[in-house]
Structures are given as structure tokens and as C-alpha cells.
Amino acid sequence: MKGEVVFFRVFDIGASVDLGEIRRRVPMEFLSGHEPSERAAPRYAKLPDSLLVTVDRRTLDTTRGRLEIDLSVRLYEVGALAVTVRVPFEVDTLPQLSAFGSLRVVRDGKKEDLDAFCGRIAARIEEDIVPYLHDSYDVRVDPEPYLAYCITQPDVPARVYVESRRRDVTALLAGDPRPEDISDEEVQDTWQTWYSYYRDDLVVIEWDAALVIEPSGKYEDTLGVLEIANLQLLELRTYDAYLDKVVDKAYDDLETFFARGGLFRSGRSIVKDLAEVRMDLSEMTVAVENISKFYGDFFLGKVYGGCTRKFELESWQRTVDDKMRALTEIYQVARGEVESRRMLWLELLIVLLFVSDLVLILYLG
């Protein structure tokens, strides 16, 4: 059994990125986009624009011995870096493959997990692209990890996995060493999202891992969909955390605004800040929603739909939408109060002018 284990780590960099500016100003050749799919699909179905900024092959000491890995970094306009580590394997059985799921890099005699290893790479690239970052926001979340077991030479035909090895696949994707003890319900849940285009290929999707069997070795389109779905999940998590900070600050600002003596405070800065945040967040969330066009009953559309269900993307989107509505309501309250106080001051000025006119008329006779 041969193939490769593909580790994804997707990082949010706290700002959007101008890919066009990087292409124009950075004196190097970039590889753009993703590999096109060879499977039947509508013309509108395409992965989002990106830049492949790093492609490297290196030999590393790991907990699986000395391994030659392929490393690549892809930069997305919505403000994300996807670091991909590819490790070839050759094993006899599926359970042996599960050991790669806990792979660690050994540096100076110390074990380093892939989050830290990929984080160092992402940090170096982020430093280089600081001049091309726009609309920054001050919030960071943990990177989104994912793992794909890609088998090009299976020990049995792909259909055997579907018919008699479901429990072993479930254990592999869950990282569980006891496949015989996994319940039928868990196996059924895992196999709710499996797809096949040709008779000899198979894709099974779980929350943090996937199995890809493709004897032709042409599965880059499938990996691209897995990466995009994880990117969307990361960005929705980021916006959720950012909205928490913004909404909390907005409530504090309103509390200060309505406090005793607040009549003499101007709320224009609050309204201005809220309006800018609403506009920026609306633009970012729309960009994340539109990052993929995999709607339909074609193969990649099905794979993306499986990711959407497994990753609970719609639930995350609803959470972000709910917090956006809460922010909108705060904005409307603040704006209404500012307008009300403005009218009050205008009425007071009118009264003062009227009184001053009366005083002048009485004084001048």
C-alpha cells in the first residue's frame, strides 16, 4: 500500500491580501490557482484565486524516522496562508497508516508538532508580505488543521473498503487504535459522506481527516476542495472571535454614552467606528461566502457539500450572521440616540434664540 499523507495547516494572517500587487511588485515567478479537475464539472466551478508562494523539498528527522517531505504554501486574498506538508508512505495494512497521524518533527533532539513547525514557516512568509496587507483586524485564532490519507496503490480495490472495511476506515480517520470496538452508529456517521467518481476511486470525509483513494494519482482537485472548506471554517471562526470583541466594546461604549452626564458626550465617534466595522465585516464575510462555486451535483460539488456538513459551515455562518445583526442593532441604537441628542440641542438653541430675541426686544423697547 503506497501513497502520501497530506497535512494541511491554514493560518489567518489578520488582514486581506492584494495578490495582484504582489504579482506586480515582487520580482519572482508565482504559480497561480489550483490544478484543474479532470472530472466532469460546469464551467463556473473553480477554486478561488491564490498564489503558490513556496514549493520546497527537504529531508527532516521525524518520529517516523528520516523522511523526505514536500512543503508548499498557498496565499489567499481573504487573508489566509495554507501550509501543506506531504509525506510519502509505504505500509502493509491500513492500521499501520494511522501512525502518521501523530507525526512530529524532531529538532535538536526535541519533538515539535506540525502546528509549531508550520507556524514558523507561516510567520516568516507573513513578515515578507506585510506591505501588501490591507484592512487589518486585531484578532488571531488557532490554525485549522486537516489530514488527508491519499492512497495511490491500495492493497485491495476501492470497493472493498466500501463493502467490508468501513470500520477500519472509520478508525483511521478518528485516530482510534481499536477499530473492532467502534460502534455501528459511529461507522454509519462517518460513511454518510463518501463519494466515488470512477469505480476504482473513493473519498471519505471526516471532521479533521479524509481518505482519498486514487490509483491515477490525480487528486489535486479533491485536495483543493478540502483546503478551501478548511479555509472557510478558519475565516468564520476568526470573524466570530472578532465580532465577540467588537460587540463587547460596542456595549461598553454605549454604557458609557448613556451614563450620567452623558448628555454632554458626543456619540459620533461610536457611530463612525461601528459603521466602519459593519462595512468591513460585511465585505469580508461576503468574500468568504463567495470563495467557492461548488454548487451542483457534480463530483467536486458533492465533496464540498460533504465538507460543509462535516465542518458545520452553515452553523458557523449563522452564528456570524446573528452577531452581525446584533452589531447592526447596536449601531441603530447608537445612531438613533445621537440623532435624538442632536435634535434636542437644536431645539435648545432655537429656544435660546427665541429668548434672546425677546430680551433684545424688551431691552431696546
Q: How would you characterize this protein structure?
A:
- This protein is an alpha+beta fold.
- The protein has 2 domains: 218 residues, no CATH class; 139 residues, Methane Monooxygenase Hydroxylase, Chain G, domain 1, CATH 1.20.58.
- It is 47% helix and 22% strand.
- The chain is built from 10 helices and 13 strands.
- The strands form 3 sheets. A 9-stranded mixed sheet has the order 3-4-5-6-1-10-13-12-11, sandwiched between helices.
- Helix 7 runs antiparallel to helix 8.
- It is elongated.
- The termini are far apart.
- 32% of the residues are buried.
Strand order of the largest sheet: 3-4-5-6-1-10-13-12-11
Poorly predicted ranges (pLDDT <50, ≥5 residues)? none
The value of Rg in angstroms is 27 Å
- Sheet-strand content, in percent, reads 15-25%
Mean pLDDT across residues = 84
Structural class: alpha+beta
List the helices and strands and how they pair.
Blueprint: E1 2-12, E2 16-17, H1 19-25, E3 31-32, E4 50-62, E5 65-76, E6 80-90, H2 94-97, E7 105-107, E8 110-112, H3 114-128, E9 133-134, E10 144-153, H4 158-164, H5 166-174, H6 184-190, E11 194-195, E12 202-205, E13 209-213, H7 220-257, H8 268-289, H9 299-310, H10 313-364
Parallel strand pairs: 10-13
Antiparallel strand pairs: 1-6, 1-10, 2-9, 3-4, 4-5, 5-6, 7-8, 11-12, 12-13
Helix pairs in contact: 4-5, 7-8, 7-9, 7-10, 8-10
